Predict the 3D structure of the following.
Amino acid sequence: MYNQEEDIAARIEEDHKQLRACMEALVAELEGEIAPEKFLQWKLDFLLRLRDFQNQLQKHFDLEEEGGYMQDVMHLAPQYAFRLENLQEDHRKIIADLNHIIATIKGFDHPSPTQVARIRQRIHELLELFKKHEAAENALIQDIYMQDYGRGD
Ligand SMILES: [Fe+2]
């Protein structure tokens, strides 16, 4: 493994850990009840946090797609192109799901425990999708960097 590849793999792994923690915090945040008089402030705060999270996630996907391992897959292991396409598809789906969650929250005009529980469930599902995605990604990274493509070490 080259140093640069180790750096990228380590950076991606670190990002994944942070992003997971962030989603877990968002899910936990939706466990309590929201007092009606605090609803508007809660809604704005939560929306802004989701936006920040989405931006963080998009930057992470950009790193993977533009600077990270995806370029290497195309060069070193084009036979894995379909695995790469699935992963890129996950990226688009995760961002689209978040957009949809944000739009749904924007539509809330009063604190409804049922609606909040649904959002919590959806963020939880997003976390599960992200974990599955991450496992597939790690497997692909292992497959390309741990194999000898004749570049020596
Ligand atoms: Fe990814």
Summary: The mean pLDDT is 88. The domain at 3-145 is CATH 1.20.120.330 (Four Helix Bundle (Hemerythrin (Met), subunit A)). The radius of gyration is 18 Å. The first helix runs from residue 3 to 29.
